[in-house]
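This entry is listed as follows:

___
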Amino acid sequence: MDLQLKDQVVVVTGGTRGIGAATVRAFAAEGARVALTFAAAQDDADGLVAELGGPERALAVRYDLADPGSVEDLVPAVERHFGQVDVLVANAVRRPARRPEPGFEHLDPADWSAVLRDNLTATLRTVQTALAGMRDRGHGRIALISSHLATRGQAGQEIYTAAKAALHGFALSLARDAGPDDVLVNVVSPGLTTTEDALRALPPAVLERAAAAMPTGRLGTPEEVARLIVFYCSPANRNITGELVSLVGRG
């Protein structure tokens, strides 16, 4: 299938590792020009730009959800380099710190304000800055990367899941607002995926239990998630919008 992505300009936030890096590579393989963001790992970002063919095909931009200036500067920086933004994949995330005591009542409101600000407010502002140009050109695709925890829940993740769940309602409404201008908006919600971070952070027994609960008996890979994102964000997707796409099977 020709996804019609040749020379389209794609922005992937949080694009230096895991699902983000797999998505960057998947778009590049379809001929897209890709801007990937990093918060601190500039060497990784520069290496990926070189891998993809240098500044004519890829661009690394600093973007920190906790830094409003970098959030405001992202889309203008990409537009200066590539001329426009056709696709936004909002993948960057701020993970909440582990709270010192069990029980939501022990969570400091200052901590949850930061999690909501970075995972929700900064993401919405990034979408807003990208949407203006998409609407003017009468074409655009937006994917918001959520988490299976937003629909399944997990103790200790109350604020993170609240922020991710909010993206679902946002996408439903934005899809109706932007759809007449051929700007399609979807949420992709991966389950536990075999990213570098997950494999490093989780004990093998936890990974094995999660894999056994999946209908296929295995966990998904970042590359599998990336392929889905690429389709939903391609011109080949003509009318799928406002959807929450879950990649957890029934596990």
Observations:
- The radius of gyration is 18 Å.
- The longest helix spans residues 109-137.
- The chain is about 45% helix and 15% strand.
